[in-house]
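debug: dumping io for the single-chain case to check the tokenizer round-trip. Nothing else runs in this session.
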Amino acid sequence: MRRNLLPILMSMVLLSPLAIDIYLPSMPTMATEFAVSASDVQSTLVLFLFAMGLGQVLIGPLADRYGRRPVAIFGILLYGASSLLAAAAIE
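debug: decoded output
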């Protein structure tokens, strides 16, 4: 394995836990900012976990067909774009 591959793989593995660690503490603030009840915001957690599970089911066959590198790069770009859109939703 190449030496510079390990940091890239570690950063990819950390994206999912990082997302949930940022998401959970921000739930009360999201409820306030979007003027919805706390239970409405908590229901989005189910969608978040469903999307994470569905992503695992879809990414596996895509990685087998197209290779892991292009699928990983696309996933990282999609994650970054989604994060920017989420940050823009508050403003």
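debug: round-trip ok. Residues 38-66 form the longest helix (29 residues).
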